[in-house]
């Protein structure tokens, strides 16, 4: 009797556990060398020849063509970390991989998977308490936010800009969208544009859209703009049914032309008399209407996409109008300035100030596509962690100091845990050592010596991390050097890595259909 298809493949018991753990460890190992300020980049080439150069953990794992289901769980760890807090993806993935490695050693010692899972979850609870103990007492002000953003970007590709200078832009952007209701991170966008040095990166108090004026004679900049947003075709109306008209004389032809001209002129005059300085429409604009409006000094953008239209409505406070008969001044949006600028082959429109002040755009420049892409990723992560730190008001020391403190507390608590579960709790602490060990290896230090020195410094000073300053690497208090991370980044890394590792460890049967 056949229960499963003859083509199905089944792996059971220790073989299944070993296969899954090996796959998870392999994925984690692939991003380990990118961790820290001296982390290396990865070049990813897809089947079409597209190249991505980055050291962002989430990007690397997403770009990799991973098929093994257990390995895919590690990818999901990075994705969850990215979605929830925006950074720490490499840390979460590396921790998950080492939790699997420690679990593999315990399984070989005949420790049951359920015992390992219970021990890991208990250790994770201790770890979260240890993170709370590491929270800095200092208020999360602009200086701390800059430190958070800079720590996030250090070691990432930022072109000719330093992480310090970019951090100032990031903090300014996050502060701009802060209100009594919290931090509206979604109101900060990053727009990239190739064709200049990364030093030209700037903060735009508003939005940037890929649009150009409908007529070359239109003004390229309008101050104190009144914006009309239309779903109207400003041209001769056409029917939905194909039809032919017979013209028997020149008088009939002239009459038809005059009627068409009158219709077009009517559209142009209605728009001009409305008082709008800027017109945005989702439909076409007849060349004759464009010429008339250009002569009136009105800036028009035609065939604007739904996404850009929605952004303009949100940024300016305009109301979308479906017919010119309904166009009223009350429907206009407002902006301090709207300007059109040309960047090589691209034309961009900048909607700044006024109602648009609720939204800001980090306008990223770079000489090549690879540079602006990596800048976009780095700034995006920095915006996320700065917003997270501002919202929670909690930061912890970076540079491996928090992981050292967590591991130390778990080992202390493990002494009071009975049975084999104590082995799993201790193994959890050993797995966390991978962060400072990797940081040390990536800075050229001996991982074992560095770990011993870090533990000793932690025991004597209460806080110790690997501080990188140029070519020098020292063991000191990260808070004194401004190396800090949001506490939520550490919490999310522990929780997501634990969940993934325990799920993989409990699998003892893999059934794959062909």
From TrEMBL:
Segment Disordered: which positions? 1-20
Concerning Pfam families, the annotation shows:
Cpn60_TCP1
Q: Which PROSITE patterns is this protein grouped with?
A: TCP1_1, TCP1_2, TCP1_3
Enumerate the UniProt keywords alphabetically: ATP-binding, Chaperone, Nucleotide-binding
Family annotation (InterPro entries): Chaperone_TCP-1, Chaperonin_TCP-1_CS, Cpn60/GroEL/TCP-1, GroEL-like_apical_dom_sf, GROEL-like_equatorial_sf, TCP-1-like_intermed_sf, TCP-1_chaperonin, thermosome_alpha
The cross-references to Gene3D superfamilies, in alphabetical order and at most eight, read:
GroEL, GroEL-like equatorial domain, TCP-1-like chaperonin intermediate domain
Q: Which GO terms describe its molecular function?
A: ATP binding; ATP hydrolysis activity; ATP-dependent protein folding chaperone; unfolded protein binding
Which family is this protein grouped under?
Belongs to the TCP-1 chaperonin family.
Write down what this protein is called: Chaperonin Cpn60/TCP-1
